[in-house]
Design a protein that fits this description.
2 domains; six-stranded mixed sheet
Length: about 150
């Protein structure tokens, strides 16, 4: 089981790295927008200034929202103990199936480790909901396909 726990640790590290990159990008965008907004001069015609200022404000709010979301996702990841072994599919478990490997954590899509693909899914995603609470050897019907759970880590 140590190898499986190491795998979950690698997945967590990769997810944290991806989130760190997204957080850094959002912070940089926020700073650029703040600089542009603060340097916007009012020597333009009134309406043009107001429109540009409003557009910058909307962009700022968008990136601030993304930043908050990424920070929330990082906090969710902190709740996962990679050393814990699961017997049912739940938040923090790695579900190995005939159709792929699913890490029930946060919705970040496909991550490649070695030659294997792992799908990092939220438990509220459709496939996450279908897997939730299932155990080894259970079968799940999803989008017309039968998914057989081979192992849960």
């Amino acid at each position: 089981m140590n190898q499986n726990n190491n795998l979950k640790e690698q997945l967590l590290n990769r997810l944290n790295s991806l989130l760190d990159e997204k957080i850094e990008t959002a912070k940089q965008e926020i700073e650029l927008i703040k600089d542009a907004r603060d340097n916007e001069t009012k020597n333009s015609v009134g309406d043009k200034y107001e429109t540009a200022h409003a557009m910058l404000q909307m962009e700022l709010e968008k990136y601030q929202s993304q930043l908050a979301k990424m920070r929330t996702l990082k906090k969710e990841l902190e709740q996962i103990n990679p050393q814990k072994t699961y017997t049912t599919a739940e938040f923090g478990s790695l579900v190995v199936c005939n159709s792929g490997n699913y890490f029930l954590s946060i919705g970040m899509g496909k991550i490649e480790l070695g030659k294997e693909n792992y799908y990092c899914l939220s438990t509220i995603s459709p496939i996450g909901q279908a897997l939730l609470g299932k155990t080894t050897s259970d079968e799940v019907q999803f989008q017309g396909k039968t998914i057989i759970i081979q192992k849960i880590v």
